[in-house]
């Protein structure tokens, strides 16, 4: 796999443009399967997870065309409802296709998604919800086999506000006669984006962003054109980089909408943030203040996806910070690599105790997951000397043009393919 070679301690200055949201694009691509006509999506990030989802859509008979950040999907001739182990194993979140394939074709056969480096990632809530909506589901030889002939509306209560389960159950209910209510639903902005997209195709969904989503069944959907929201995890990632390295960067297309929790933590840690109509300007002298506590929670709490990024930033804070990762059970693996750079981090279960150090020392580190890899890259940007970040393909799953953007604003970073 490829690597970044980084000479640290460079101040960041200039302008970058914020990408579209990975975690909105993926469910919206899955939702397109419900429609019998062509949809055109704009602001789709050019990242590996989107490429994998395109392959999966093509494998079931969708026609997919990409022009820059515009993706055209024609699902009119869906010919299959089987998603193979080789494709699901590449991206476990492809399971959000289950609901839409089931609602469109009334059957589905998906390889059971495995866990990943941040946790077991079970899908019990997805499957229980689909069964409560009338799907007949069996699991054999590592496959989920679903029969959706008798899919119906109903009242579903999620034990936990799972993003993927909320999305899957919305998609499965679009054509079910009557009104489906999903209570204790996830409130993430990406689910609101999904609702906007589905309603633009003629669906009747309301309540996304609150803890109960209602889906009134309709007969069919029509094609549409839609622009994906900007990525609320990528923008604070660059903001943390500026806070760590020092600098003055304008992020075109960024907004404070949807990032209130990380925003308040960033200004508490010393970053100067100014919002404009067309983007956000961030400035820093490179001195990071510690944060008494960060607790990752479902939206609108602090997003778990930013926990690794903030952990890396707080390694350089003046003082001690405490992080409580309540969402995923194994999301501190990357900290062993930070310790090799001289970070002072103690992990006790879900708690990370971070004592800031004056500087990190450059070395070779290994990415093991998307956000952990981005965190290691930020640490290398402000470490003394030349670092090598290995296995950067993990990072490319969710960050478009990551190293080219960082280079554009002054980092000394070079990508070396395997
Ligand atoms: C989505 O994953 C995101 N992925 C994740 O982003 C994000 O971290 C997560 O939501 C939380 O915000 C996409 O949107 C593609 P969950 P998802 O279901 O849907 C447990 C990134 O870096 N759970 O809300 O898989 C689960 O194990 C990725 O961009 C069950 O127990 O997250 C976890 O502990 C990482 N049973 C918690 O709920 C279930 O049936 C939250 O998971 C489903 C989930």
List keywords for this structure.
418 residues; alpha/beta; UDP-n-acetylglucosamine1-carboxyvinyl-transferase, Chain; 2 domains; four-stranded mixed beta sheet; 13 helices; 28 strands; 29% helix; 28% strand; binds ligand EPZ
User: Into which percent range does the helicity of residues fall?
Assistant: 25-40%
For the record, the CATH architecture of the largest domain stands as Alpha-beta prism
Bound molecules: ligand EPZ
Oligomer: single chain
Record the strand order, biggest sheet.
25-27-1-28
Cα radius of gyration in angstroms: 21 Å
Structural class: alpha/beta
Count the DSSP helices: 13
Strand content range: 25-35%
- CATH homologous superfamily designation of the largest domain: Enolpyruvate transferase domain
Low-confidence stretches: none
| Major sheet summary line | 4 strands, mixed
Distance between the termini: 4 Å
Number of DSSP strand runs: 28
Identify the CATH class of the largest domain: Alpha Beta
Give me the CATH fold name of the largest domain.
UDP-n-acetylglucosamine1-carboxyvinyl-transferase, Chain
């Amino acid at each position: 796999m490829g690597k970044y070679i980084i000479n640290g301690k460079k101040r960041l200055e200039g302008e970058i443009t914020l990408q579209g949201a990975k975690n909105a694009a993926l469910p919206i691509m899955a939702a397109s399967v419900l429609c019998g006509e062509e949809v055109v999506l704009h602001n789709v990030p050019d990242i590996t997870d989107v490429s994998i989802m395109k392959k999966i859509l093509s494998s079931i008979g969708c026609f997919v065309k990409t022009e820059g950040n515009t993706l055209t999907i024609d699902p009119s001739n869906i010919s299959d409802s089987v998603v193979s182990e080789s494709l699901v194993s590449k991206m476990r979140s492809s399971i959000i296709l289950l609901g839409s394939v089931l609602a469109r074709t009334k059957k589905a056969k998906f390889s059971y998604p495995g866990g990943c480096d941040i946790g077991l990632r079970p899908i019990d809530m997805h499957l229980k919800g689909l069964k409560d909506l009338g799907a007949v589901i069996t699991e054999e030889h590592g496959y989920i086999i679903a029969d959706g002939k008798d899919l119906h509306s109903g009242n579903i209560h999620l034990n936990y506000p799972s993003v993927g389960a909320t999305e899957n159950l919305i998609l499965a209910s679009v054509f079910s006669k009557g009104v489906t209510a999903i209570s204790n639903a996830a409130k993430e902005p990406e689910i609101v984006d999904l609702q906007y997209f589905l309603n633009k195709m003629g669906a009747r969904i309301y309540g996304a962003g609150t803890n109960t989503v209602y889906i009134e069944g309709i007969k069919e959907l029509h094609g549409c054109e839609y622009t994906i929201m900007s990525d609320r995890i990528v923008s604070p990632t660059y903001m943390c980089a500026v806070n760590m390295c020092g600098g003055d960067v304008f992020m075109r297309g960024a907004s404070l909408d949807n990032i209130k929790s990380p925003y308040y933590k960033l200004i508490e840690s010393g970053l100067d943030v100014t919002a404009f109509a067309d983007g956000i300007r961030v400035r820093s002298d490179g001195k990071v203040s510690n944060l008494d506590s960060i607790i990752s929670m479902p939206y609108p709490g602090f997003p778990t996806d930013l926990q690794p990024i903030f952990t890396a930033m707080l390694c350089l804070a003046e003082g001690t910070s405490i992080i409580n990762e309540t969402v995923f059970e194994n999301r501190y693996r990357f900290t062993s690599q930070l310790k090799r750079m001289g970070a002072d981090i103690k992990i006790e279960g879900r708690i990370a105790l971070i004592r800031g150090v004056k500087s990190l020392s450059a070395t070779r580190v290994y990415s093991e997951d998307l956000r952990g890899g981005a965190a290691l890259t930020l640490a290398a940007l402000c470490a003394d000397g030349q670092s090598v970040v290995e296995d950067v393909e993990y990072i490319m799953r969710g960050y478009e043009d990551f190293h080219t953007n960082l280079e554009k604003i002054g980092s000394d970073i070079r990508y070396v393919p395997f």
